[in-house]
Amino acid sequence: QVQLVESGGGLVQAGGSLRVSCAAYGRIFSPYAMGWYRQAPGKQRELVGTITSGGSTTYTDSVKGRFTISRDNAKNTVYLQMNSLKPEDTAVYYCRISSTSIWGQGTQVTVSS
Q: Which in 3, 11, 77, 82 has the greatest CB count within 10 A?
């Protein structure tokens, strides 16, 4: 059983940067494609971006040019680097193994104006 643990959330001012991490623990035999999601208060959870096992990435339009997803397969960890943060980026951020029901517990990111 694989478990995902996010870390690195917090409070940051608009225009600032933050990096959140997602570490995978358990029976990991090969790198998975991963997704980062977020859920703001009163809104549905949305996909932020994805990264394949080989490192190819996709992003939703609202974060393109500001967010970067990367991974370190040796550490079983995926990262979400967030720059030029805006108050509308405030949300709980989750990672997920793509096409599975395996999610992390989420980490809160709050951007103050």
A: 82
